[in-house]
Please model this.
Amino acid sequence: MPLTFLPPPSLRHPGSGFTAVELMVVVAITAILAAMAMPSYRNLIDRYRVRQATEDLTAMLYLARAEAIKRGGRITVHKASSEDCSTAGAGDWSCGWIVFVDSDQDGAFDAGDEQLQISPAPRGVNVKFVLGTGRSFMQGDAWGRFGGMGGFSFELKPKRNPNIDFQVHLCMSSGGRLRMLKGSALCS
Model:
């Protein structure tokens, strides 16, 4: 009987896959790249949150103005407060806001008032009423103007990174026109 030559086991089945050293090198490179990308990712998230809060506040102001014109006034925009979110002063609107038909025009949401919209606290964003005195509510008249204030603005900026480049000022003129100013630009 002839003998057949069998190759050694290492030649019969060539190894497939990665060695432990190769795998560790790939993991190390991935960790370095992730660490380099993290700060810019945080900035992206902060900008997105400010933009989202600005859009929510803009939509709420347009709704309140339209409802005030439609209903002949009696619309109130009030800063929200709850047990899990409290703000320091009247000008701090970081807990959200509520729009309602204020039947007795006292500026407070009472039993007889109709809620039109409630916006929860914007996540990771400080919202401040900055032009004029800090106010906890505004009332719209039949012309869509808010309390004869002559104009007002809100300042929105990230809580985690109060970089001036990320902040936004939302300005409403006495006639009801909204503008958004980015960075250090202020409403006039």
